[in-house]
Structure formats: structure tokens, C-alpha cells
Amino acid sequence: MSVASKSVAIITGASMGFGRAFAEELAGDGWDLVIDARHQHPLEVAAARLRKHGGTVMAVAGDVTDPDHRRAVVDAATALGPLRLVVNNASTLGASPLPRLSEVPLDTLTAVYATNVVAPLALVQLALPALTEAGGTVVDITSDAAVEGYEGWGGYGSSKAALDQLGNVLAAEHPDLRVYSFDPGDMRTQMHQDAFPGEDISDRPEPEGVAPVLRRLVADSPPSGRYRAADLRSPA
User: Fold this and answer.
1) Which CATH number is 188's domain given?
2) What's the pLDDT tens digit per position in 166-198?
3) Is this prediction's pTM over 0.90?
4) What residues are paired with 182 via a beta bridge?
5) I need a labelling partner for 15 at 20 to 30 A (CA). Which of 42, 180, 188, 209 fits?
């Protein structure tokens, strides 16, 4: 991927899993990064690994539902250079094991929406002037649970469906930007393990095997829309 000098990306939830794997892809391509996660130590470990590629990596620990934290993330990014990419990867599953909708605690559902819907939009609102100036890209990490009726996935899935629709409208309102909902599919992550407590998920692909697919999507810059990793993989 060819990147302009001092291109900056924000990636939320980047201390582990898919966020860290995609940050590794961008760091290898010369992007400067601002990464966030709730816990300082694993975030700093991830940042140290990413800095080995030679670029600037700023680790800003905090919760994406905190307005002050979101402002700190965007301020850090815009201080580095042109902000060309925001990846809304941080999300929460909610209760584990996954409850049926008839049993889901409403305070838990509210927290899921705060993290998975409201926080990504709030971050984009703050970043929008810089993204618009740079002709940038927004990537919202979504799920097939947003479009399929899986038992137990009503809270998380509906939050991702809402996030998809926010992306649809953002793309319509800002045709100068690229806005992607990216469904990576099932992966061997802690969140997926939490969704299936006690089950063996070793048959799921590692995030490092899926991250290059998103890298190509961002590099190719197709029209805004919803894209599935399964549809974008190169033929074997």
C-alpha cells in the first residue's frame, strides 16, 4: 500500500485481536498510528511492537464511551499529521453467555449501544473536519450478526446493524469520504471466545489472517459500502 507522507490512522480497540492485527498491517506500510484500548499495559505492549516498523505510534488508554478520552485520541492524531483513516474496532459483546432478548438486562443493552454505536459516531464527529480535509476513510468493524438472526445475538447484532446504518448515512452525507462497514467473519479472538464460553474455537482463523483483507480494501478505495472479508479474499 502506498501511503502519503505522514498519513495518520486512529484504530480503537488495538491492544489485541483484530485491532492489533490491522494496526500491524498499517505500521508495516508506514502509517503513523494513534491506538486506544481500555487497559494501559497491553496497549503499551502493542505500541512497542508496532514501533519496530519505524513509524510513530501513540498509545492513548481509555474508554471510547468517555468524551474526554475521544477528544484526546483525535487531538493526538491531528497533532501528528493528516488524519486519513479512522477504524472503529472497539466494541463490547455484552453479557456472556449470550442471553435471549427476553432475558437481556436493559442496562447491559444500553452499555452495548453506548460502546458499539454512540461512541463510534461521536469519535467520527470529532474527527470529521480533519478527515474531510484529507479526503479520508472511516471503517466500522461490523458482524454477520448485524444481518442474520442468531439466537442470543440480539443485543450485539442490533448494535452492529445500527452502526452499519450510521455508516450508510454518513457516506450519503459525505460523498467525499470513503465509509466502509467491514465484516471480518468469525475469528479466534477473546470476544468470540466470550460468546462461546467453554467451547473450542481453534478452528476459527487468526485475526492476522484477516487483517490483510481490510488492508487491501482501504488501499483499493472502492465505493463506500458494506464489505465481507469472505467475499474479498484472493482466490487460492
Assistant:
1) 3.40.50.720
2) 999 999 999 999 999 999 987 666 666 556 666
3) yes
4) 141, 227
5) 180
